[in-house]
What we know:
Elements: H1 2-19, H2 27-36, H3 42-45, E1 53-58, E2 66-69, E3 75-78, E4 82-85, H4 91-103, E5 112-118, E6 122-126, E7 132-134, H5 142-148, E8 160-164, E9 172-175, E10 188-191
Parallel strand pairs: 6-10
Antiparallel strand pairs: 1-2, 1-5, 3-4, 6-7, 8-9, 8-10
Amino acid sequence: xxxxxxxxxxxxxxxxxxxxxxxxxxxxxxxxxxxxxxxxxxxxxxxxxxxxxxxxxxxxxxxxxxxxxxxxxxxxxxxxxxxxxxxxxxxxxxxxxxxxxxxxxxxxxxxxxxxxxxxxxxxxxxxxxxxxxxxxxxxxxxxxxxxxxxxxxxxxxxxxxxxxxxxxxxxxxxxxxxxxxxxxxxxxxxxxxxxx
Length: 196
């Protein structure tokens, strides 16, 4: 009987210890996965933001077609219809919103095409050769961004950087372990100083 009580006590302590582990123990791994997934399925998952330059073609209506930039408020200022909200919308969602706006008293059955001409820039700061704002190119990796910005300074921590994803108010720590880390338009990269 004492043997069974001893075994049950050990099991109870073991289960209690497992239950006390931090639930966010894998959060660093999850954040790492967030930034290393394959180019974020750029065409499907990309959400528009201020600074994105778009080409709109309204078939049969050349006066309504043109190149437009998403403004600081996240809108596109289009002929006839005025402002159309674009921030945080995919291209498909924005196309639908433009069609609805054009149908509202302007065109009977508008057919449009919409494409991104230039993505909003990314930013890199800290222990880097030339900190600043740089134009985004599809498929940009962290290594590419560092190279574009003049490489690491001699004081740079080359084992870990911080990335603030566009729209977030927190930094994601990223270990530079050899996995490809993809950058999105609007991301801010911070390269910290190493400690000797």
